[in-house]
Design goal:
It is found in: Membrane. The protein is an all-alpha fold. About 75% of the residues lie in helices and about 0% in strands. It has helices at about 1-55, 60-75, 80-100, 105-110, 110-145, 150-155. It is rod-shaped. The model is unreliable at about 175-180 (pLDDT under 50).
């Protein structure tokens, strides 16, 4: 009789742990999907921005080409690491594009350009929040599958850690606070 009770408790514990791991894994996948949605929005805004700038800055072809290439690379990224690297490159090319825009006062005052710039800024903020949520979800999942007794169930059912969405080492200088000198 006691053996049956212990067996039932063990089976219930395994079911509980397995279901918890499923919930956490689903949360990580949902968080990644949210990043994907915001990145898609960003990718959709960029061609409109490039076309608006192209109308004013006809001789800035190189910058516009780099933005378009960076967008294509970012859209083709398949892993969090690839996506982070590609989107870092896209961010850098967009910064270059906005630096070029500074040379065109009429463009900076253009209502369409200003609207696109505001939408892109809002999207960048949403991407930042989505990345944070994704990394938090990954941290919770990865910690859970490493704890006992979850590690036993996780390895038994093939649960593996997820990658964080991290800034590539090449972009590490962005992590540092800017130095202001007077």
């Amino acid at each position: 009789m006691i053996g049956w009770i212990i067996l039932i408790i063990v089976v219930l514990a395994v079911i509980f742990i397995y279901n918890r791991l499923i919930v956490l894994r689903t949360r990580v996948k949902n968080a990644w999907a949210q990043i994907d949605v915001q990145l898609k929005r960003r990718y959709d805004l960029i061609p409109n921005l490039v076309e608006t700038v192209r109308g004013y800055a006809k001789h800035e072809r190189e910058v516009l080409t780099k933005v378009t290439e960076a967008r294509s690379r970012a859209m083709g990224a398949t892993s969090p690491k690839d996506a982070a690297e590609a989107n870092n490159m896209l961010t850098q090319t967009l910064k270059t594009l906005f630096a070029v825009v500074e040379n065109y006062p009429d463009l900076k005052a253009n209502a369409n350009f200003l609207r696109l710039q505001e939408e892109l800024t809002a999207t960048e903020n949403k991407i930042s929040f989505a990345r944070q949520f994704y990394n938090d979800s990954v941290m919770i999942f990865n910690q859970t599958i490493q704890k006992f007794p979850q590690v036993v169930i996780a390895s038994l059912f093939g649960f593996t850690p997820f990658e964080y969405f991290e800034i590539p080492e090449e972009a590490a200088e962005e992590r540092e606070a800017p130095k202001v000198k007077f």
